[in-house]
Every structure is written in C-alpha cells, then in structure tokens.
Amino acid sequence: TWQAAYRIISQANLLLRDIDDFSATDGGAVNRIKSQALSIRALAHFDLLRYWVEEYDRNSTKPGIPYITVFDYEQKPARGTVKETYDHIEADLQQARGLINNGLDKTINATGKAYIDIQGVNAIMARVFLYSNQLDSAIKYSTLVINSIPLASRTNFPNIWTDASTAEVIWSVSFNAGEGRIGDPVYFVPNNRSSYRPNPALVTMYDQVNDIRYSSYFQVRSSSNGNRLVLSKYLAKAAQVSRPDGITNFKAFRTGEMYLIRAEAYARKGGANEALGLADLNTLRFVRIAGFIAGTETGTALLSAIALERRKELISEGHRWFDL
Questions:
Q1: Which residues contact 42 (CB under 8 A, 6 or more apart)?
Q2: Vertex 224, ends 221 and 225: CA angle to 5°?
Q3: Mean of the pLDDT values across residues 223-244?
Q4: Which of 134-143, 203-212, 225-234, 290-299 has the lowest mean pLDDT?
Q5: How far apart are CA 313 and CA 203, in angstroms?
Q6: Looking at residue 269, what is its pLDDT?
Q7: Would you call 251 helix, strand, or coil by DSSP?
Q8: How far apart are CA 244 and CA 94, in angstroms?
Q9: What are the tens digits of pLDDT across the range 150-199?
Q10: Is 273 exposed, middle or buried (0-12, 13-18, 19+ CB in 10 A)?
C-alpha cells in the first residue's frame, strides 16, 4: 500500500515537472491536467496519512508521512509532522482549485465522471477537513458539492452501480472490460466467485424492503454450493449483468458521502448545529428509504446514527476501517 501510493505520486510529479513547457501552446489544457495531478498527489498523500499516522488532528506534532513533490529516486525524505503533511495537502488542493477555476473546460465530465473537476476537488477537501477536525471547512466544501450535485433519486440509484447512470457521482475511477480487476482480491470476480460476504449483522440493519440500498448493494447468487448473498456493487456494467465480470467504475466520491460529512461536522460542533446535522442525516434517509419517518436523535445518539448510516451507505467504498 505504501509503495503503490508513492508510485501514483511519482507519476503525478513526473507530469508536474515538465507540463509548464506546454503553457504557451494550450494554457487551458495545461491548467486542467495540472490541477488533476495536484489533486491526485494530495489525495494519495492523504490516504498514506490515514493509514500511517497516530492521530488525525490538524495541528498534531506526531510524525506525519513524507510529502514528495519532486521526482528523485535518490531522495531520502523526512516524515515531518502531521501538521506539516496537512500543510502540503491543503496547499496542493488550493492550487488545484485555482487552476481549475482558470482553465477547466466545463464539459470535461459531461458524459462521465472520469476526471477531477472543481466539485471533485471540493469533495476531496471536505473529506480531508472532516478528518483533520476543521469542521467549518468540512461544512463549507461539502456544501459546495451538495449544492451542485444532488442525491440520486430512488429510481436512479440502482443504475449507479451498473454504470448506467452517473447520478450523484462526483469522481469515479474508470474501468473497461479486461482492465484491472480479473484476479485481483476484489468484492466480485468472474464466474460468480465472490471473495467476500456482507457482514451478517450489518445486513440486518437495513430495511430490506424499503431501503433502495439493500437491493442495489446485495444480490442472492446461485452456484453449485447453493445460494449466497453477495455484495453486488462491483458485479458488472449494465451490458454485462447476465455474465458478470466484476468490472465497474469505482465511485471514489459521491454526494451521499458529502451529506454524511456535513451531518457529522454539524453534530460534532454541537449546540444549535445538531439540528442541522440531523436534517442532513434525515435528508439522506428520506431519499434512500421509502416511507422513512424522520429521526429525532441528539447528542451521542445522533453521532451513532451518523456512524451507522456511513456504514450502510458506504459499504465497500473504503471507509469503514478508518471510521472505526
């Protein structure tokens, strides 16, 4: 995991080293590409931070992780502190926002979500700020995304997971047939061989009749060993569902997460903000669960309800270990 992240960072740094040479030819394209490289560099470092630091607080003086901004295979960088790591992450993301505002082709994600646009940067920042306990900033950037990209309807929500729709998808990592999945330890692989089963206790927490997530996320699949409930988020694209190949786009950021980020930030601020956090949590539950009756949680119960909803909403999207 450590090496894989730094390989991604090295690719970003190679691009950033030389891309300004093309500014005179097409400054807009340079800004678009440069902003995405900076965003990916920041996100990869943030993922390293999530795994390897002792605490997430913004001003922590605990050891951070080496932040690599140049390609040099002989360098021996120091770890620095958590605070210094965040300084670099935020600087890259703020620079990326500026470049996108100055050079982004607004149609870049018109037919898909394969590129990081302005809302992609905002979403990354919202996630980073929630971890670093910068709650006002987490609220600010999640709100920018929420106001731009609404939640998917109950009718359209299942289509997200077969790539028939990009509703509420902010940025996804794209895969085509034969790319990146076969033989990897993923949630679904060809020939109905599911390497993982849903946690039985978690499955019972869904309203299996009224919660659109249950039928969207899980399927009963038959095999020579009998029927099994498997996670179907990564089953197949729409054209391949009859012969699943385990290849769908990975939804790195969705509006559903943004509602949960903002709800948690409000709840952690406490006081009058709790009502705003509850409103966000109820909004998500209303959209996902037919006939949902508004919750009235406060205090610790509200934080627990948000944690449970994160577990139900974001299963297999890479959050649970860090949430714990």
A1: 88, 89, 90, 92, 93, 96, 124, 128
A2: 80
A3: 82
A4: 225-234
A5: 12
A6: 98
A7: strand
A8: 40
A9: 999 999 999 999 999 999 999 999 887 767 544 454 554 555 455 567 89
A10: middle
In single-letter form, the type of residue at position 213 comes to: R
* Helix, strand, or coil (residue 154): coil
CB atoms within 10 A of CB 147: 11
> How many CA atoms, within 13 angstroms, populate the side-chain half-sphere of residue 39?
26
**DSSP class of residue 271?**
T
Residues 138 and 134: their CA atoms lie apart, in Å, by 6
DSSP run (H or E) holding 277: helix 273-288
Nearest residue to 284 (alpha-carbon basis) of 213, 232, 214, 225: 213
Q: Which of 324, 252, 266, 296 is nearest to 40 (CA)?
A: 252
**Amino acid at site 88:** H
Rg (CA), the chain: 20
For residue 240, give both structure tokens.
Answer: 């391949």
**Dist CA 172 CA 23 (whole Å):** 27
Q: Which residues pair with 189 in a beta bridge?
A: 193
Q: What type of residue is 199?
A: N
Query: What six digits make up the tokens of 107?
Result: 């149609």
**Dist. CA 174–CA 81, nearest whole Å:** 34
Section 125-129 average pLDDT: 98
